[in-house]
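Q: My labmate handed me this sequence with no annotations at all. I'd like to see what the chain might look like in three dimensions before we decide whether it's worth expressing. Could you predict it?
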Amino acid sequence: MSNQPDTAFVGLDKQLCFAVYSAGIAFTAAYKPILDPHGLTYPQFIVLLALWERDGVPLKDISDRLGLDPGSVTPLLKKLEGMGLLRRGRNPRNERQLFVELTDRGQALRPLVGEARCAFIRAMDGEESILKAREEVARVTRLLQTSLS
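A: Here is what I predict for the chain of 149 residues:
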């Protein structure tokens, strides 16, 4: 048996990339009823998640944590700032560095994480299935990042 990959056509429904893409759409839809009452989108929510983990950080730290370029994160930050959920400002020791910190109003939304987690635990028949799925997705991500670098 050859170690060469099979280059035959594989349809959309058998593509891992499409399954992950579809799962992403499903996650966004599942978060919608939790986030809509607060006027948040899923991308805004993941920015808040990063800040709830570690607040008062440079823009670069947020973009690195999310795996996005700063130009993609900046519009999200501007919108969240306009909503009164965070503040952006320059580092007094390095004027070129933009710092981001949550406001009290932004911190007050932190319970959304638990609300979403409970909803997903119910939807996926328990926390164990979430942990297994998350670990497998993380493994795939590591494999792809390693093979593409």
